[in-house]
UniProtKB/TrEMBL annotation:
Organism of derivation: Candidatus Moduliflexus flocculans
Protein name: Acetyl xylan esterase
InterPro entries found in the cross-reference section: AB_hydrolase_fold, Abhydrolase_bac, FrsA_esterase
Keywords: Hydrolase
Claim: Hydrolase is one of the keywords in the record: yes
GO molecular function: carboxylic ester hydrolase activity
């Protein structure tokens, strides 16, 4: 029998310091330096902060992309009106651009005096806006809060606020039709978020920019409705909806107060540290430092941060650290660190609501 000789290769076990340079992210992390970002918050006085805000808000608009799309007539079409007893739910379609239509649910309390203060309600990942206005994914009515978003649009309405809840781009009725793909020969169907984000990157913008633009158009539309008082305007959202609230409040000064649930922390410890949908990313955002720097575009308006101690994608210690920096480095310049409030609750990635709903109502009615 012929003898086979196998050459045994010796293997060297690399320690962590030797192994790190083999990882591409190791090199990129060396370039991550929010402390030297050109648009980081460095103001030491209110006057300096206001100058910084004007310059930085314009620069962030440009980085987001799609903030200068041509506006068209809204051409509103009311699809349905449903009497829910203590409030009315209206569904309306509005045009945001020549090529884009956005469904919006309006929850209008019956008992409050007109014109009504308004809360923008931005849903996160899931089956879309129905999940925050008391509807199951098949459109059937739901009378008991469910899931991580807990029908928070309905809860805000029952606090006496008119609620405007849009179907955010890439979710629900606004998903891309990929029926042309040859799935029979192995072509997979991408998620709408991922595909739209990559297309937006190719065009020099971001899905975040698209969503912020449409949020602005929604406020423009609400200003045409006499039953709404948009001088008393707030915003609340969870996860991707919290991201929407964060950047929309930073870039649109018409929003008087905001509630950010399951999002506010640091880019380094969350968005850049683990898997997140591509719709969270904005090319060039590093020039604006960390989340607590961007907060300078929200200050001195009231901000509420809600976070669960077992949230796996927005680590609670990073949330707390970022909140303290926002209070002591940013809001203190404006003389109002107390305007950053928190609810650190026991739980995972979800809405809590123990203080958030009352906070938003109080701050926008103040």
């Amino acid at each position: 029998m012929r003898e086979h000789r196998w050459k045994i290769m010796s293997t060297t076990i690399l320690d962590s310091r030797t192994f790190q340079p083999l990882q591409p992210a190791h090199q990129l992390w060396q370039l991550y330096a929010p402390e030297s970002a050109p648009y980081r918050f460095q103001a030491q006085s209110v006057e300096d902060a206001q100058t910084w805000q004007t310059r930085t808000r314009a620069a962030l608009n440009d980085v987001m992309g799609f903030q200068h799309l041509p506006c068209v007539d809204f051409e509103p079409k009311v699809i349905e009106i449903v009497d829910k007893g203590d409030y009315v739910r209206e569904k309306v379609l509005i045009r945001t651009t020549e090529y884009s239509t956005m469904p919006v649910y309006l929850l209008i309390p019956k008992t409050s005096t007109r014109p009504l203060p308004v809360a923008l309600a931005f849903h996160g990942h899931g089956y879309g806006v129905k999940d925050i206005v008391g509807l199951w994914e098949d459109g059937n009515e739901r009378e008991t809060p469910d899931g991580i978003q807990r029908d928070f649009g309905v809860e805000l309405c029952r606090k006496g606020l008119a609620v405007a809840a849009p179907e955010i781009s890439c979710f629900g009725e606004r998903q891309t039709d990929f029926s042309y793909l040859r799935t029979d020969i192995g072509q997979g169907v991408p998620s709408t978020c991922d595909h739209t984000a990559r297309l937006a990157f190719h065009l020099g913008g971001s899905v975040v920019g698209l969503r912020v633009f449409e949020g602005k158009r929604l406020i423009d539309y609400l200003e045409t409705r006499p039953e709404f008082d948009t001088t008393r305007l707030g915003a609340m959202g969870l996860s991707g909806g919290g991201m929407h609230v964060f950047f929309s409040t930073a870039l649109d000064e018409r929003i008087n107060a905001c509630v950010i649930c399951g999002y506010y922390s640091t880019f380094k410890d969350s968005i850049l540290a683990m898997h997140h949908c591509a719709c969270n990313f904005v090319p060039g955002l590093h020039r604006f430092g960390e989340m607590y720097d961007v907060v300078g575009l929200i200050a001195p308006r009231p901000m509420f941060v809600e976070a669960g101690n077992y949230d796996p994608i927005f680590p609670i210690e990073a949330v707390k650290r970022s909140v303290e920096i926002a209070r002591n480095r940013v809001y203190r310049v404006f003389g109002c660190p107390e305007r950053v409030e928190t609810d650190y609750f026991e739980g995972r990635h979800r809405i809590n609501g123990a203080r958030a709903y009352d906070f938003l109502r109080e701050k926008i009615e103040h």
